[in-house]
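Narrative of activities, Objective 1.

The group set out to show that a structural description can be obtained from nothing but a protein's sequence at a throughput compatible with the screening campaign. Below is one input-output pair from the validation batch, recorded exactly as produced.
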Amino acid sequence: MARKPVDELAPVPEAPRPSSATEADGIQNARSEARKYLLDAVRLYAAVAFSHDSEVSLFTRVGAAKELVGLAAVSQPPPTPPTPAYERRDGDGRAVD
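Output recorded for this entry:
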């Protein structure tokens, strides 16, 4: 397939107009929209993760359970154990020149 000449390419559309006057208003609008659908999302993830009649794979069920944990904001990463200090001892099996 041959490329179209540059003159025949469609123009790039303009960016859409902002939905709010300020950034803070936009964030507030997004949060209120998210609150409207939050309960539906929780119900969907719970149905997928915990339903006995669900035919989804284990991977999908675990993913839905992880999403529920993320929505509940109870997930915290496990603490990283401290790195053990390296101690050099004589006669540890390394060749010395």
